[in-house]
Amino acid sequence: MEEAMQKPQYRPDIDGLRAIAVILVVAYHAEIPGFDFGFIGVDVFFVISGYLITSLLIRELERTGDISLLAFYGRRVRRLMPAMVVVILSSLVLGYLLLTPVGQQQNLSESAIASIAFFANYYFIATTGGYFDGPTDQVPLLHMWSLSVEEQFYAIWPILLIASLSFARRHGKRPWIVFSTLAALGIGASFCYGWWLSSANPNAAYFSVLSRGWQLLAGSLLACVLGRGLLPQASNAARSTLAALAAALLLAATFVIEGSHAYPGWMGMLPVLSAVALIVAGFGRASNPLSRLLATRPFVFVGKISYPWYLWHWPLLAMSRAYHLGEGDLERDVMLASLSFFLAFLTYRLVEIPAACFFTRRSVSHKQLVKLGGLASLLLALAAFGLMSHANQQKSTGFYRQLDRAAEDVPELRGECHLSTPFQGLPDASNCVNRSDMGAPDLLLWGDSHADHYSPMLEELSGVLQFSFLQRSFSTCPPLIGYSHGYSQGHPRENDRNCELFKEALTDELAELTQRGLSGVVLSASWLGRASSESHLSLAEKGLRNTVDLLLEHGLRVVVVAPTPVFSVPMTDCLARRTVASCSTYQRRLEKRREAILSVMHDIAEEEPGVRVVDFHAQLCPGGKCHSLLGDTVVYRDEHHLTTRAARELSPYARNDIEWLL
After folding, report:
1. Exposure string for 541-571, b = 16+ CB within 10 A, e = fewer
2. Which DSSP helix (H) or strand (E) runs through 499?
3. Which residue in 97, 113, 145, 298 has a CA-CA distance of 20 to 30 Å to 239?
4. CB within 8 A of 231, min separation 6: which ones?
């Protein structure tokens, strides 16, 4: 470069900052009380990564006059692949031993392949309800999303730097100014996009490189500025003040950030600014107390093994939870987090250091490193395909085959007619009527996913009683007019808003349906979730009365389906591991909630002759014990949704009430 840049020195305080980041993440994943905000450790990692990698690229440019992509990717292979190969291969072996072939081993194999291809973040956008979604705590390679974000960023950033360098030389500009401008523009674009996406699609906002790139670029911009020597002349007092401000920002983040927020959004600025401030405060002599603390041996030691610790901790926690059917156990999780620390130390000493020494001693070229990385990825992919093939073979035989069918046994109308956030209008009614040959629908099935799982029951009765029905269902959106969960932040709030839009569209549609001959409505929802407290029950009662009043005003009769039993674990997973008898004892203790909401339903039915309550409790829970298997029928495809087969078998018990609706 035309102007010499300051040579980056080893920064022990940055290793200490790495230690803080990984401790936050591991404590959060182990569900240690008080660490609900711990996922922000990943934001700190991103800033550190952007700073260090960009510093190395600038140093290479100063030394050689150019940036070599081959050398860059060779270094990435040398840094990432040894530990990553060991952990992913070990995860596949553990998955073979601990997970079931009814979906779990297949999902592990798919996520392993996505991780190897550094595409895990987009895989999880497509296959999960979000990072904070309950079931994701049993996804063994979920944490690989952050590594994928980094590598996607580094697939582009060095190329942009090379292009910027060419631009600077052609137009006589200073390269560091062009680099800084590029980073600043990228920060603005990525931050604004992420802020918007946090409301439009929180799941994608959390995982996407486009909404996370600004955090890496913040570190990159810092590398450009610090490398030019623009900030290191600050006094000791100024450094100490800056370090204190960084600590205050991190402390503020612990109070205002939690998993229910749409993240990162604007709140992602807190850990990022904190990390930036700590890196700046420690630049040069690192004379402030906080930077000196981070540079002490214990912090540096944890920082040096932070990468393998991050890799190891989550597969152990997730597979243990999957094996124990999602049962929480703080003592077990803390022990596993400690075990992962020990494995990280062994990986660092026995894998990472020897691999680095081997590559150096043998003078392995960058080209050979890239080829070696490709070969290792291919072998890991073959191992993942091997596990998938084994799992598919297992699930195609015996009881596993029945469980696999049950897990995938969803209603025919679900694909097109069961909606979720974001709401984009009601689908064409003709596509959501079970028998389009009969013209206008006779009945309306309205509710959330618990309405959706009863559509096979109505389908079975429609052939006998000669009627058609229209399905209108929306996830986590009970048919309660005026009812809102009252969320104020994040994805739940977004779902609340979309639920209101869905209900408004449906109430607008009611007049037209009634004119065309609609005679009755079946209301079904996950009612037990609306009776979690006296205040929620009161709101639910008001909402149900509003809905019933609206339907009665249109001259419609109403059937309200009583709550379906809810279990603490997916029944297909339970039956794959436990006895049928033990899986019938895993029902959550929600009887008081059931009694409370059922009392509300019966009160409304007694007051309104146009309303009836249908309750399948006697059939699903004979003798008061809720069974996961009735005869040879698997009753539930997860914790609380009926299989299509089970729903059809309930049809005789609803026939009289459906006839009454007609």
Report:
1. bebbbebbebbbeeebbbbbbbbbbbbebbb
2. helix 490-515
3. 298
4. 225, 280, 283
Q: Which residues contact 657 (CB under 8 A, 6 or more apart)?
A: 559, 612, 614
Nearest to 320 by CA among 309, 329, 311: 329
| β-pair partners for 419 | 474
First vs last C-alpha separation in the chain: 82
Strand order of the sheet with strand 557-561? Answer: 418-419, 469-474, 443-447, 520-524, 557-561, 611-614
- Compute CA distances 412 → 10, 471, 557, 572, 591, whole Å: 61, 11, 26, 20, 31
| Helix residue ranges per DSSP H, 99-227 | 104-116, 120-127, 144-171, 175-200, 202-207, 209-227
How does pLDDT run across 300-341, given as a tens digit for each residue? 999 999 999 999 999 999 999 999 988 889 999 999 999 999
> What's the pLDDT tens digit per position in 642-658?
999 999 999 999 999 99
Residue 464: other Cβ atoms inside 10 A: 12
* Mean pLDDT, residues 85-99: 96
Longest alpha-carbon distance in the chain: 87
Q: How far apart are CA 235 and CA 628, in angstroms?
A: 69
Using CB atoms within 10 Å of the CB of residue 357, give its burial: 0 to 12 exposed, 13 to 18 middle, 19+ buried.
exposed
For 122-131, 432-441, 590-599, which range has the lowest pLDDT when averaged over its residues?
432-441
pLDDT at 577: 85
Nearest partner of 140 among 347, 308, 320, 378, judged by Cα: 320
Q: In the chain, what percentage of residues exceed pLDDT 90?
A: 60
The CA R_g of the chain, rounded to the nearest whole Å, is 29
H helices of 324-425, where? 330-347, 353-361, 366-395, 398-407, 414-417
* DSSP states along 643-657: PHHHHHHTHHHHHHH
Q: What is the pLDDT of residue 2?
A: 39
Q: What pLDDT band is residue 489 in, cutting at 50, 70 and 90?
A: very low
Stated as kind and residue range, the H or E segment containing 296 is none
Alpha carbon distance 627, 536 (integer Å): 28
